Amino acid sequence: MSHIFPRHTKALPPVVARADGAYLYDTDGKAYLDGSGGAAVSCLGHGDSKVIGAMKAQLDQVAFAHTGFFTSEPAERLADRLVSLAPEGLDRVYVVAGGSEAMESALKLARQYYLEKGEPQRVNIIARRQSYHGNTLGALATGGNIWRREPFAPLLIDVHHVAPCYAYRGMAPGETEEQYGKRLAAEIEAEVQALGPETVMAFVAEPVVGATAGAVPAVPGYFKRIREICDRYGILLILDEVMCGMGRTGTLFACEQDGVAPDICAVAKGLGAGYAPIGAMLCSAEIYAAIETGSGFFQHGHTYLGHPTSCAGACAVLERLVDDQVLGRVAPMGALLRGALEERFGQRPYLGDIRGRGLFLGLELVAHRESKAPFDPGQGVAGKLKKAAFAEGLICYPMSGTIDGQRGDHVLLAPPFILTEDQVGELVDKLDRALTAVL
Ligand code: PLP
């Protein structure tokens, strides 16, 4: 018996033995097509020799040096590269070890920024009910996923949650996308007014909502309106690109497609592509200047800040994505996968919606197409689908969400960008067999 503390104590997973390209293999030799990159992590697939080589070389040179004593060449190179590729205005990079850390850092930086600026009354965070921003307490409090929050609710800070931009369920009959986006923006502005604009610190959102909802992008113009509201009241816009960033939607940063730049941006997952536990928080020159010319010390840190080996890996990931143009595969392969999903499942009675951007796609599963009625929670559709797909040799990411009191089952797909045409077919076939077994 192993002494490992598994996350699911009653359903132990198989032991992974090796991985290569788009596949993982267990110790019995069974192959699993990585249709969700784990949880939207493995953008380059497995066994990328450039990333592995860069990390090995760094391990030989200096594996780790604490940022209390040193900076390092790979950390500085990563920061420079990220800024050169980031939306206009993002100027400084704080390198952490994962997505929750990046979001926790973002929230604390926002707070410290206003303290340094002499606006200590700015404490309110507005976020959306359909969101996940990480599992540490600050990030968990910011997210709106009821199931994840519930057990820890007494420990969570107050965050003000507003309606998500969720066209499939949120758009009123006869409403255009533009009217819908305007209505949501007006709700957010009303929330700012109700709280008192001078008390609001940040608006936090995922440009394309991931785990909670299954790849839900906003309607055109929504984020531009939010940016305007934030500017009008001096509120920081924090975008969480932990899941949708690093090329997943076809552009390196998802918000590029919404035509907005945040004041603070969190990335992780694809930044390390599974080779290194790493995340980053990017912030504007103005925010950095407030700290630099103020206390001169960001009062927040973790032991593995700017980890040199992880940074060397992330630099190589960016080289693969940008210089080797792996990123260029996302839009065409995403269109191919989406087309194949629409063709295969588009008319199925359980298919409510197919959505997403690039290789970040979601299928919403419903009991009735016309009424959009969700499945009875007792049916446990998402859990059964995960199991059935895994039995078929497919890793995908089904989830149940509760959004504004409505329950929804969806499956998220986020395969590696190196996916081939044949593998698109294999993914759809395996998903089809799994869905047929469950529904
Ligand atoms: N933010 C988003 C949008 C995520 O999807 C996740 C993880 O799924 C996180 C934050 C937390 O990242 P991590 O699991 O690396 O802590």
Explain what you see.
This protein is of the alpha/beta class. The protein has two domains: 144 residues, Aspartate Aminotransferase, domain 1 (Alpha-Beta Complex), CATH 3.90.1150; 272 residues, Type I PLP-dependent aspartate aminotransferase-like (Major domain) (Aspartate Aminotransferase, domain 2, 3-Layer(aba) Sandwich). 37% of the residues lie in helices and 19% in strands. The protein contains 14 helices and 17 strands. A seven-stranded mixed sheet has the order 4-12-11-10-7-5-6, sandwiched between helices. It has a four-stranded mixed sheet with strand order 1-2-3-15. Strands 13-14-17-16 form a four-stranded antiparallel sheet. Strand 2 and strand 3 form a beta hairpin. It is globular and about 60 Å long. The site of pyridoxal-5'-phosphate has 15 residues, from helix 4. Keywords: Aminotransferase, Pyridoxal phosphate, Transferase. Belongs to the class-III pyridoxal-phosphate-dependent aminotransferase family. This is Adenosylmethionine-8-amino-7-oxononanoate aminotransferase. GO terms for molecular function: pyridoxal phosphate binding; transaminase activity. It comes from Salipiger abyssi.
Low-confidence stretches: none
Biggest beta-sheet profile: 7 strands, mixed
CATH topology (level 3) name of the largest domain: Aspartate Aminotransferase, domain 2
Structural class: alpha/beta
Q: Ligands bound here?
A: pyridoxal-5'-phosphate
Q: What count of helical segments does DSSP give? A: 14
Query: What fraction strand?
Result: 15-25%
β-strand number: 17
Strand order of the largest sheet: 4-12-11-10-7-5-6
